[in-house]
Amino acid sequence: MKPNEWVKCVEFPCQDVNHETYLVPGIEVDPDQISLVVISEAVPTQASDYYYAGMDASYPQTTLHAFQAAGAKLTSFQEIRDLGIYFTSAVKCSKTGYGIRAGTIKECSNLLEKEIEAFTKVKAYLLMGDVAIKSINAIAKRAGIGRVIPAGSTYKIRGGEYTFREARALPSYLHVGPSYGIEKSKQRMIAEDIGKALSLIM
Fold first, then answer.
1. Cα end-to-end distance, the chain, whole Å
2. Domains of the chain from N-terminus onward
3. Nearest residue to 125 (alpha-carbon basis) of 191, 171, 169
4. pLDDT in tens, 36-70
């Protein structure tokens, strides 16, 4: 199964993203083997930087470094995937500015919902950044279960225990793109959150 075969945006209603960069993972996935879903903010401006674009691409390289910082004895992004970890973005087009409007996040959360509903054996969702957190909250609200992750600064809420679809939901910071690598304290917290997620699936 390839996620881009069952997840499609038809109308492209959002005005603050670049529709030409629209991207849903086109890799073969066995939904029954996915135990951890890592959700970041948006796809990169260049498709060649995306998670599944090859070992030298920006997203997989940065992700590998983050997992290694968490203590994982891994040498490639493929080894991370082999653990049953699936990577995607909350917003399927790249940003045109610094932030992403609330309406865009809510609209694109419909695509994210379709994408992850196939993964019925997930033990944890790692939410990398505010956009991923807001997307999961939007999905939960549509389901009538209310907010999964409470409002507040990430450093204050990341220690709590939250549940989404009978799996743990772990709020963290964005680990890919230009925002990553600025603050050592955030890198440390990202590593801790990845370590916690790995402990839940191993």
1. 24
2. 3-201 (3.40.470.10)
3. 169
4. 999 999 999 999 999 999 988 999 999 999 999 99
